[in-house]
Amino acid sequence: MINETFFWTIQVLIAIALLGSSIAAIRFKNLISAVIAMAVFSLALSVEFYVLQAPDVAIAEAGVGAGLTTAMYLLAIRNTTDEEVVE
Amino acid sequence: MTTTIIKTTTRLLAPLILVFGSYIILHGHLTPGGGFQGGAVFASGLILLIVANVRDKVQKLFEKTPLTQLESLGALGFLGIGLLGLMSYTFLKNAIANSGFLFGGTTPQGINPGYLNTGGTLSYLNIFVGTKVLAGLTSIVLIFFLILRRERDEW
Lengths: 87, 155
Known about the structure:
The complex is a heterodimer.
Chain A: H1 2-27, H2 31-51, H3 55-79
Helix pairs in contact in A: 1-2, 2-3
Chain B: H1 4-26, H2 35-51, H3 55-62, H4 67-84, H5 121-146
Helix pairs in contact in B: 1-2, 2-5, 4-5
């Protein structure tokens, strides 16, 4: 029973983290902050995959989501500008 | 992105990430993960090295690294190991298992902790997939890095 409670607590915490980080990624005006929020989203998603007993997918998500796409977004922002352009 | 904090962190962290990626690739038939996952982890270590250094150093570091050739080697090696299976029965048949060759050790019966020298063809496939993935992902980010405008090299 204690395991069940722990499992659902983790689920609720991860859901809050996913929602919070994705809303932060949309709302941040500084694009670098938005990219870091996306990395936090990927990290929380990989923890969720691990809790749901798919460690394979968790490793892929952590490596590609938090490592590679963050580096690519950062390089693209560095090539242009780090402030959101409001038309 | 070349402050002292990032440089010091990279110097400590990059070797550990590279070793962990190699571990995931080599133990692909025993533990979670495999060629793709280990290749992605290894590539993120190399990308940490790319992002945390200035352009000239990166150019010098990766000038002699045959990333294109490594990627082709991964695909051709996968195909070659697959064709090796035709020797005994069919495409991708595990011809190396129990042969006494490297990674061809005999798997013991029953519950065991998992031995590295088993798996046969699977280990070779993991190594070739890992080679292809790490070369491909690293070259993507390397090209992203090298087409940067020169005048904004300050961070």
